[in-house]
Each structure stands twice: as C-alpha cells, then as structure tokens.
Amino acid sequence: MTRGSFVPTNSSRWFLAAPALALLLSSCSTRPSLTAALAATEPRGESQPCPPGVAAGSRCVTGRDSAGAWWWLTMPPRWNGTLVVHSHGGPELGPPKAERAIEDLQRWSIWSRAGYAYAGSGYRQGGVAVASASADSERVRTIFVAEFGMPKRTVLHGQSWGAGVAAKAAETFGAPAAGKPPYNGVLLTSGVLGGGSESYNFRLDLRVVYEAVCGNHPAADEPQYPLWQGLPLDSALSRDELAKRVDACTGARRKAAERTPQQQRHLDAILAAVAIPERSLVGHLAWATWHFQDIAFARLGGRNAFGNIGVFYPGTVGNDALDGRVARYAADPAARAAFAADADLAGRIAVPVLTVHAIDDPTAFVELESAFRERMVQGGSGDRLVQTFTDEHEHSYLADAEYVAAMAALVAWIERGDKPTPQGIAAACMGVDAVFTPAVGCRFRPDYQPRPLESRVPPR
C-alpha cells in the first residue's frame, strides 16, 4: 500500500491553493433523520480513542450492528458537512473481525484529515456476498445518522471489491425518501467493476491453465476435483503451501536469473495465456482457490457459475499446444444467474458517479472500467459517470491528493451540477498536492481510455 502523509498547514492555505475545494466548508444540514425507525433498532456504540492517522481532535465511535458487523464512525473537528460511507475491499473469508473495521478507518484516514466524516462497516460475514455487504454499508449510514444527525450530503466510497458493493448499495438503497436520496454521489476507486459474472472469469482461466502447465494444484497424488470448486471443503492446503507449489513450478517469487529454464518456460506460458502480471500470479491463484471455494459451496450450494467452453488460450509448453490440454467446464445456468443476482450490477444509479483507477493495477484490471461504463450506459446512467485514470502500478492505495481532488470534484458536481472532466480533476490535484503530500504525487492521465475487457479476458 502506498500512502502519502499529511503536511500540517493552515486551512486557508489549502483553499487558496485549491479554490474548487471551498465547498468542503459547507455546513451540516439539520433536516430530520429519514432512517430513525431503522436506526432505533441498532445497538448504540461507544466512544473510543481514534486510531493513529485519523485527524487530531476527531471523535470516534465504534460498535457492532444488529446483523453482527463491526463498525467505526469518525467526526473530524472541522466537519465540512459530507459523510463518506466506506465499503471496503477483499472480500475476506471467515467470520467478521473487529480488526478489519479499524484497519479500514486507518487506511482511509485521509477522509477525516480532509474534513469528511466517515462511516465504515466490516460486514456481517466474510466471503463473496455483495448484496449483504451493501446492506451492511447502508446500515452503518443509518447508525451515523442516529449518532451525529443527518449530514448535508452523503457519498458512498467503494474500494476494490468494495466498489462493487458501493455500486450495489447505490442501486439498491438509492431511492429517495421524503424527496431526498440517502446518497448524493458515489466514488469508486480501484474497482472490481465487471460484476461477479465478468470479473471472475479470468480466475477460472488461471486455474485451468496453471494446472495444465504445472499439474500440482491439485497434485497427481491428491484427490482430484473440478477446478471451479476452488478447493474441496476438507482440504488442509494452506496459502503458504500453495505459494511454494507455484514457486516450484514457475519460480514466480524469485528473480529471473534465479529461475531454471523450465520454470521460466512455465511462467511464460501461464502469463501468455492469462494476461496477469508476474507479480500478482500467487495472489490471483490464491483468490481462484479460496474465493472460488466460497462461491461454489457457501453461495451456490456446490454448483458452478463459471465456464470456459470455447475459450482459446494462446501459448505453448514445449511442443504441446496448451489450449488443447486445459480442463473445460460448462457453467450451470441457474448457478450463474444466482451469482449474477448477488454480484452483478444493473447500471442504474441515480446520482453522480466518479471512478479512479490505476492503469497498471495488478489486481483489478483497468479494463474492468470499460465493462462498468457499458453497464452504466445500458442501465441509463451513462451520463452520470465520469472515469479517471492514473499512471500508477498499485491497487490497494494510490495517492492522498488524488483521492481528495476526486472527492472535491464529485462534491462540486453534487452541489452545483458542474460535471467534472478528467482534465479538470488532474489540474485541481496539483493544487491539492501542495497540502497532501503523497509518495507518488498527482499522476492523472486525462486522455487515457481503457480497452474493452474482452481484449484481456476471452469472452464466453
């Protein structure tokens, strides 16, 4: 994770350097809560010292909601009236952990340092469950309202897998109540935005190609299983053991000079057939193992949502054509429909949506943004979408100034109807950079447009 540090400064300098950010000083609305009935059913939280990184003088409240999700709220000392409801990435597996919610607050302490209130849920359950996570994000919004009152404006922020969660929340819970929508805008960063149906196809490709090349996941002397299952429920395979198997076959975690010729051939064949960067091979293979196990067994009752019939895989190993040696699977239509109902997006979001994505993101391909734009256009929301891209190579966190500039542009769009442009956001970021000093600076690429997702992941 790359994160910049806040340079203490006088707030007047901030706004002189970036006049577009003046809207951040708007006062909080006092209109009555629209969610009082729902919030009244929630256990009250407790005030706790804010973790390191959060703006000095902030008030932090934490608790566990009625569904079992841990949450944190932050009110900065000089609130600009905007609440950021954060949907975190992952997804993590297993039962909810209190640590996850506090880690997200610390990672995204930029919001409190820039004057925004924060509300973040750790989700009630682990696993690939988009709809329930979106409901958890909506629930923590109501908890904030009960604790601090109705904000002037509320922005959903989704990061990584959480971008799909936030988009789902905007679609599901975005209907106006008493004439006012619960959310006024959506910021999606490093988003897994192809929907579950499209975003996970390449991981089945990785499993079948890896097994055709390496033959050690599963190994020949282990029980065999269809690779779309990820891993049998009774398997004791650990992540460390999987990484060792990948290294034995490909030398992926070694320097190129330390690999054997055979390891290099194996690695080249896998990366030629599945367009992922070398540095993320182990990570993607792990997600294609344990996340697929969660999808197959916890979400779909042992059914298969993914297929690769008719997919062509380029690359060879020795003189044997790789494409003819991979396992082939047909998706169960009912399972795919069930997974899509939970994890896919309709593209119907009634408020402004702004995305930020690194061009060389090794985890969530930038081409997923093309799929998201297509979905938004199909859903009738294309004119409410602005996409921006940065010349970076990270996924988990980009630069403080880039997030602040993007949020300021989104707030201006909400408040004044001034639809931002990538060029304008890039220019404004340079002013923000004078106050929020990141490790990489402002690296927006206003003229960049991603290729279609099909250019990287074979359609099916």
If you had to describe this structure to a student in words, what would you say it looks like?
With 460 residues, the chain is of the alpha/beta class. It folds into two domains: 5-194 and 345-455, 3-Layer(aba) Sandwich (Rossmann fold); 197-340, no CATH class. 37% of the residues lie in helices and 13% in strands. The strands form three sheets. A nine-stranded mixed β-sheet has the order 2-3-4-6-5-7-8-11-12, with helices on both faces. Strands 1-13 form a two-stranded antiparallel sheet. It has a two-stranded antiparallel sheet with strand order 9-10.
What distinguishing features does this structure have?
single chain, 460 residues, alpha/beta, Rossmann fold, 9-stranded mixed sheet, two-stranded antiparallel ribbon, 15 helices, disordered N terminus
Layout of helices and strands, plus pairs?
Blueprint: E1 5-6, H1 11-17, H2 36-39, E2 46-48, E3 59-64, E4 70-75, E5 82-87, H3 98-107, H4 110-113, E6 117-121, H5 130-148, E7 153-159, H6 161-173, E8 185-189, H7 195-199, H8 201-214, H9 239-250, H10 261-273, H11 281-299, E9 316-317, E10 320-321, H12 333-343, E11 353-358, H13 368-378, E12 385-390, H14 400-416, H15 422-432, E13 436-437
Parallel strand pairs: 5-6, 5-7, 7-8, 8-11, 11-12
Antiparallel strand pairs: 1-13, 2-3, 3-4, 4-6, 9-10
Helix pairs in contact: 5-6, 8-10, 8-11, 9-10, 14-15
